[in-house]
From TrEMBL:
Residues 25-37 have a biased composition (Low complexity). It holds the Pfam family PCuAC. This is Copper chaperone PCu(A)C. It comes from Leucobacter ruminantium. PROSITE patterns: PROKAR_LIPOPROTEIN.
Length: 181
């Protein structure tokens, strides 16, 4: 009668010890988190990067473009489903039409597996509209790109002064004379 009681006490003690070591293990960040955690962690992937990324300096409440080469080092094509930024009220993917106006891209924007998506002045770009702060040369600006599979990637680029990328936004209201052309 004594042996089983001792046995179960020992088993319970071992279980508590395992539980404690389990807690200690999950609290230590050194072993499981090699990279700093993102502020909002969904399914952040590291297989998408930007080469030579930059954004054009712009005033608060204005709009600006973000450019660079998005690279998908994963094995699946990635379809962009949304872009957001704490620096802008609205973020869209834009293209520049043959007549030099820019507009939101309505079709799928894909970064092919093992391939790239070029974002450049006068061509496709990430448009930040309703800037929540002035973007000065030397600042950093971040956008979070979400893909249709639920993955996200946060991209941070430097702000630069740039004289180009002044395309009229086809969706913007005309503050001057009434166009009609
Ligand atoms: Cu644009």
């Amino acid at each position: 009668m004594i042996r089983p009681a001792l046995g179960s006490t020992t088993a319970a003690a071992i279980a508590v010890a395992l539980l404690l070591s389990g807690c200690a293990g999950s609290e230590s960040r050194t072993s499981t988190a090699p990279e700093p955690a993102a502020t909002e962690e969904r399914a952040e992937v590291s297989s998408v990067t930007i080469d030579a990324g930059w954004a054009k300096a712009a005033e608060a409440d204005g709009m600006t473009g973000l450019f660079g080469t998005l690279r998908n080092e994963g094995s699946d094509d990635l379809v962009i489903s949304g872009v957001e930024s704490d620096a802008a009220k609205t973020v869209e993917l834009h293209e520049v039409t043959a007549d030099g106006a820019m507009q939101e891209i309505t079709g799928d924007v894909v970064i092919p597996a093992g391939g790239t998506l070029e974002l450049a002045p006068g061509s496709d770009h990430i448009m930040l509209m309703g800037l929540t702060r002035e973007l000065l040369a030397g600042d950093d600006v971040s956008v979070t790109v979400t893909f249709e599979n639920g993955d996200t990637v946060r991209i941070t680029v430097p702000v630069k002064d740039y004289a180009g990328a002044n395309e009229e936004y086809a969706g913007a209201e005309d503050h001057g004379e009434h166009g009609g052309h």
